[in-house]
Design a protein that fits this description.
single chain; alpha/beta; Glutaredoxin; five-stranded mixed β-sheet; two-stranded antiparallel ribbon; globular
Amino acid sequence: MTRLYAGLAAAAVAGLLGGTAGYVFFAQSDDPFAQCRAGAVGGGDIGGPFALIDKTGATVTDKDILTKPALVYFGYTFCPDVCPMDMARNAEAVDILQSKGLAVTPVFITIDPDRDTPQVVGEFAANIHPDAIGLTGSAEQVKAASQAYKTYYRKQDGDDPEFYLMDHSTFTYLMLPGGKFGDFFRRDDTAEAMVDRVGCFLGQS
């Protein structure tokens, strides 16, 4: 029965991610950044207003955070491997971009607000990169942000209220100033590939 549930969950995630990718690539036909994307066509209604909590406990919005290009990632600090690896890759891309004179902010939004307090996400972000921003919020605030970015997450079943894992999508989103969606990156995109594509976008902006 456990294997059945795991299979159904995996199928649901795959379907959601595939749908997200299709939505992103085919949502717009007139794309000024087409040459910057991995696919032939880009765009899509990804992103939107959010209100979350920063490391100081203050409420911040997308207008406060997305004042310059950003790499936005949804994950959780108790993630054993995927989230730290993805964020480290994003931080490497940010450093390379900074060496080229391009300022991009790495942003981490938790999908596990029960454990990820403002202090926890703040320390996690700081350990990843000095410019990284960690955000949390109430369950409702996190859900609203996730829905705006069309991400997926689900708490795995278990009896332990402290030690549990989360299923979640693993895209990184390039957001341009003002919260405009640029592109998304998969886990198998290297830092160098991200730099090339982000640099193309910033050159066109």
